[in-house]
Design brief:
With 362 residues, this protein is mainly α. The chain contains 16 helices and no strands. It has helices at residues 3-7, 11-30, 38-42, 49-71, 75-100, 115-125, 154-165, 174-194, 196-199, 210-226, 234-251, 257-274, 283-287, 291-309, 313-340, 347-361. The longest helix has 28 residues, at 313-340. The protein is globular, with a radius of gyration of 21 Å. The two termini are 42 Å apart.
């Protein structure tokens, strides 16, 4: 697949849509609403906008990150790209959170003497064992304390990067790669669908059972990339999309829905992504890739709006979407896009080669 073909897809638009879906779902608990979002109401609680969105993120991530691994010259190059995509924007939102924290801080302990203020940035940049709150910030909001609850998926995302990077050592053997991904997918699907209650009780040392819940969707996306689903003609992809979507909708409300989720949802998302739509497939060309920015800014923006204005969930949805989109636009053009231009510097690949050279000489 050449670069131009790779770019003619709807994946950027889908991620943008998913980021907005997360904001919609979050608006309900953040305002203290006893209702759930519109999709939740229609499906009688079977799934929400954010349920679809988060799993959609991981399907697309699995699909694209696998392709990135295949194109990478070495692992250092692969990880450098991932670091540039995740951490610059994350660091800025964390810094802004601490800098603007005093405007929403209510605590007898002076702000700068609060230990949680000093640990908030390093703990969250570490991404594992995240720190969600600073005592005194948003303590009186309906959803108490959590400053940026959306960060919870980042450790799982990075863990998936590590997992797919292991395929680098066998990437020249396509059949072996597909077999490894198929085994991983089937194992995760089996655990998620048939052992769901048991995995929630497992003693995970670092993360939790969502490693399996989200991992199966990431594995599905990677598997679809490995089997080159994009090489199927658009006609057949369209038929596959219609059939998968019909079966997924039919499964709603039935006992086999969880099985339908892990088998059909990845196919639906990738098929939609591979059928370019005029005006949608090139959306990022005009405004930039705002999905990550909307995702990481949405939650603190919503908490701040609730703190000052006590909005209803409908008002919060529209207001926070607009503000988050503006912040995401600035984040992309001032932070994320410039950071991605540093790919050519490759300090990690250079350091990796130097260390490898020292080891070989010893």
């Amino acid at each position: 697949m050449n670069i131009e073909t790779h770019r003619r897809n709807n994946f950027d638009f889908l991620r943008l849509l998913f980021a907005g879906c997360v904001i919609i779902t979050h608006a309900y608990p953040l305002t203290g609403s006893l209702e759930c979002d519109w999709l939740c109401q229609v499906t009688n609680g079977q799934y929400t906008f954010s349920w679809i969105a988060v799993r959609g993120f991981f399907v697309i991530s699995g699909y694209l990150i696998f392709q990135s691994m295949e194109r990478s010259g070495d692992l250092a190059d692969f990880y450098w790209k991932r670091i540039l995509r995740l951490f610059p924007a994350l660091a800025v939102v964390l810094i802004l959170t601490v800098v603007l924290g005093p405007f929403v801080y209510e605590n007898d302990t002076p702000y700068l003497l609060n230990k949680a203020v000093r640990t908030y940035i390093p703990n969250n940049l570490r991404i594992y064992r995240l720190q969600y709150d600073i005592p005194g910030i948003f303590d009186n909001n309906p959803h108490k304390s959590a400053i940026n609850g959306s960060l919870w998926t980042i450790p799982f995302e990075f863990t998936m990067y590590v997992a797919v990077s292991l395929l680098f050592f066998i990437k020249s053997n396509r059949k072996l790669v597909m077999l490894a991904l198929l085994v991983a997918y089937l194992l995760l699907a089996k655990l998620d669908v048939f052992n769901f209650t048991e995995i929630q009780k497992w003693n995970f040392k670092v993360l939790d059972w969502y490693l399996i819940e989200l991992g199966v969707y990431f594995a599905a996306g990677s598997l679809l990339a490995a089997v080159r689903i994009a090489d199927i003609s658009k006609q057949y992809i369209g038929v596959l999309l219609i059939l998968s979507l019909a079966m997924f909708v039919f499964s709603t409300g039935h006992r086999f829905f969880s099985l339908a989720g892990v088998t059909l949802l990845p196919v639906i998302i990738i098929c939609i992504g591979l059928l370019p739509v005029y005006g949608i497939s090139n959306v990022t060309k005009h405004i930039g890739d705002l999905s990550y920015g909307i995702y990481i800014y949405g939650f603190p923006v919503q908490q701040t709006l609730v703190y000052y204005f006590g909005m209803s969930h409908l008002n919060l949805i529209f207001t926070s979407l607009m503000i988050s989109a503006m912040l995401a636009y600035l984040s992309w053009h001032l932070i994320e896009a410039p950071a991605l231009k540093l790919k050519s510097l490759k300090p990690i690949p250079i350091l990796f080669r130097k260390v490898r050279g020292l080891i070989s000489r010893s």
